[in-house]
Specification:
Elements (H helix, E strand, L loop, with lengths): L2 E7 L6 H9 L7 E7 L6 H7 L3 E4 L7 H11 L4 E4 L11 H4 L1
Amino acid sequence: MLLSVIIPVKNGSKTLKNCLLSIKKQTLYFDAEIIILDSGSTDNSVEIAHNYGAKIININPSEFNHGSTRNLGASFANGKLLYYTVQDAELSDNNILEIM
């Protein structure tokens, strides 16, 4: 069953790589997609996300809203399960998504 990991991002280059690396290490990574909701990053966040195979959705920074932006991410998700996180979070164990 496909799992969609949805992450809102803005200028997250300092932490995003570690966040995505912790997702890539997951036991269910083979059955997951990553959706990045980028709201106008001016650093290399989009490049980092692209390097991890993420689907990147660009949104206008003036349209960012915590609730509706996450709903937008869900509308692009192919997974039956959705996991929301943020650009500076790292999953502590390699089976967190599996446990969920």
